[in-house]
């Protein structure tokens, strides 16, 4: 494979959960075209993501999204330098759709295929020059806060990530969604809960702050959810729901801030604290983490929301970083529903 040039174009595909996405990126980080189709409406009647519905929706929509981004960018298959598709972790049906389409396009265009770890996609996003001036330098601390993932990760290099802590039970977005449901809010509850919290008094209900002050940076949210359930069971009026939402959000923000401070102490050479995942959209949580990063003399880097949540730009960019490191996959590379960040092929140090 010839070395990557800045003008080379990479196609990225994302289909690991309930967002169908395609993007075209130039190797210098310029986004030529991007498209995301949320399946929210397909899953809302069921109050959560239904894997079979997700897989069928990816199959129905991903080829059309690829045609759309290629049309918008004026790029044909012959202009591609590589194709990168999410190969895990995630729902196996969607992963098979994206990886198989990615391999097919790569084969037809005669270019390399990259099977990207979705978590590495989130982890490398702040290295996009448009997200952080010039691209963030390694190492940095990533807090991945989404509906499916809740981890503190030291990002040391391409393929080199150390998970410092994870959740012992629910992911933080899951805790938001379950608590919001208890408060009678629609799914996914995070944004609704944040809106409700704005008119609430966070001091009215004293909720647990799980693992606060404990060594390390693991998370636990099931006790907090149980506390919310117990209060709701006793009956709360409209103002009570707002107060409960505000109390819940304050407890989560305080816990995340404590965990982030512990994690930063474990990475003394970090260049920044980075947040990613849908929960990073929460302003209260961002403010708490900005304060923690500030105390360590570091910036809080939060990619724009569309690049924090699931998208294909991050998959194409991870592909570009991996191509630069000389890493590609063979066409028999199998998607992996479970694929820890610690299990990646790595750049020679
Ligand atoms: O990263 P994401 O879009 O999808 C994955 O889970 O992979 O994250 C979705 C999660 C949901 O749990 C949603 O409720 C939560 O992020 N979320 C929020 C907010 N916006 C989205 N949680 C709290 N506050 C928000 N503003
Ligand atoms: Zn994600």
Automatic annotation (TrEMBL):
InterPro entries documented for this protein: ATPase_NBD, Gcp-like_dom, KAE1/TsaD, TsaD
Origin superkingdom: Bacteria
Enzyme class: transferase
The record's free-text note on cofactor binding: Binds 1 Fe(2+) ion per subunit.
Record bears the keyword Ribosomal protein: no
Binding positions for Fe cation per the UniProt entry: 118, 122, 310
Reactions accelerated catalytically: L-threonylcarbamoyladenylate + adenosine(37) in tRNA = N(6)-L-threonylcarbamoyladenosine(37) in tRNA + AMP + H(+)
Record: residues binding substrate: 144-148, 177, 190, 194, 282
GO molecular function: iron ion binding; tRNA N(6)-L-threonylcarbamoyladenine synthase activity
Keywords for this protein: Acyltransferase, Cytoplasm, Iron, Metal-binding, Transferase, tRNA processing
Cofactor dependence: Fe(2+)
BP-aspect Gene Ontology terms: tRNA threonylcarbamoyladenosine modification
Alphabetical list of SUPFAM superfamilies matching this protein: Actin-like ATPase domain
Pfam families: TsaD (PF00814)
A GO term from the CC aspect: cytoplasm
Family: Belongs to the KAE1 / TsaD family.
PANTHER family: TRNA N6-ADENOSINE THREONYLCARBAMOYLTRANSFERASE, TRNA N6-ADENOSINE THREONYLCARBAMOYLTRANSFERASE, MITOCHONDRIAL
Cited NCBIfam families: gcp_kae1, T6A_TsaD_YgjD
Name the record gives this protein: tRNA N6-adenosine threonylcarbamoyltransferase
